[in-house]
Fold each of these.
Amino acid sequence: MGKRKKSSRKPAGPRRKDPLETNFTCLFCHHDKSVSVRIDRKEGVAQLFCKICDQRYQSKANHLTEPIDIYSEWIDAADAAEREASSTRRPVASSSRPARAPSVASDED
C-alpha cells in the first residue's frame, strides 16, 4: 500500500455565518425591503411593520425567534384572515332563471 495523497481541502475552521434578512417585501403594498422586524427578547414580543403602508403585525417571540419567522407568521395570518373573510361573505344573489344560450346565426338562406 502506498501513502495517502494530501487533501486539497481547507482545514475545518469556524464557518462564516451569513446574516439573515431583516427587511422584507410587503404583502399589501409590494414594496421591496419596506417591512422591518424588531424582536424584544426580554419582553417576548416581536413587531413587524411596513414603512410605506403602515401595516403592522405583532407576535410572541422567544430566544430562538428570528425575523424570518415573524415574517412567515405574518404571511400565514394574512392568508388565514383572507380565507376567513371570503368564507363569511354572503354569496352574491343570482337569478333563478337559467342563462340564455347564445344565438348562433346560420349561413343557410
Note: The beta strands are 23-24, 35-40, 45-50, 56-60.
Amino acid sequence: MSLLQLAFTFFYIGLFTIGGGQVAITLMQQAIVSAGLISQEQFYNMIAISESTPGPIGINMATYIGYELYGVPGALIVTCAQVLPSIIIILIIARFLKSFNDNPFVKGSLAFLRPVTTGLILVPVIQVIMFTLINPPESLSVLTTLEGWKGLFNPIPIAAYGVFVFLLFKVKLHPIGVIILGAVFGIVFL
C-alpha cells in the first residue's frame, strides 16, 4: 500500500468514525491488519501505546501507523488524512447548526447511531480480551501455565493500581503525575 493509498484509507476511516477514536480502531484493524501491513500483535501493541499517550486514540493510532510504515512524513500525512473529514464536517455543521437543531430526522439519526457506536466500541474490547487471554500469541504463551496466570494477576501491580486510583481520585494528583509514577513503578518493580 502506497502512502497515498494509506492516507486515503485513513481519510475514509476519519469520515466514517462516528463516536470517537474507539470506533476507529475497528475500522483500522480491518483496513490495516487484513491488508497485511502489520500483524495483529503489532496492532494490539499500538493500541496499548496509543491509549497511554496523551490525545485521542484514533489520531494517536493514525500517527503511529503512519510513522511505522512511512516515517515522519507518513505520520504527518496519515494524521492529517484522519483529521480532515472531522474538520470538514464540523465546519458544515457549524454553518447550518440552527436549521439542523430541531430537525426530527437529525434527532432520529443520532438516536440510531448511539447503539451502533456502542457496538463498534465493544468489538475491539472483546477482540483484545480474546487475543490476549483466550488465544494468546506466542509471546504470551506463558499464560497456558498456572504460573503464567499468577504473573498476569500479580498482587503487586494490582495493589499499585489501587494506590494510583486513590492518588488520582482522592488525593487529586494530576494524571501526568500518575503516569510518571506508573512508569517509574514499572521500571523499578517489574
Note: The chain has two domains: 3-140, 154-189.
Amino acid sequence: MARIIYVEDDDLAGLLVQEVLTEAGHLVGVIGHGTLAYETIAFKKPDLVILDRALPGLPGMEILKRLRQTPATYLTPILMLTAKRGEAMADEALRAGADDYLIKPFTPEDLVQRVEAALATKQFTAGRRAR
C-alpha cells in the first residue's frame, strides 16, 4: 500500500482517481489547492504525487519544479495527470522532472498501471541507494 497525494481542483476527478487507486490497494488523499498541496507534500512526504497542471494557488508545474529542487522530495515519483494535451506540454513536464504524463480522460487500468510502474521504479531506486 502506497501513500499517494493527488493534487486536483475538480472534485469529480479527485473522487474518481481516489476510488480507482483505493481499489488498487493504495491510500489516497486529494488536495484541491496548489499552495496547500505543496506544503502538505513537503511535510508528509508521500510515496507518490499525482499533479494536475491547472490549479488555484501554485500551478502543477511550479509544484513539480519545487519538489525536484527540495532534497526531501527530489526522488518522489510524480505523475502529471491533466487535460492539457500536446507533445510540447508533456515534454515540458518530463524535462522538469515528472516521471510520467497521463492525459484525461484515461482508463482506470492505465492509471493503475502507471502508478504501479512509478512505485516500482521508486522501490528499485531506493534499493540501489541502500547498497
Note: Residues 3-124 form a domain with the Rossmann fold fold (CATH 3.40.50.2300).
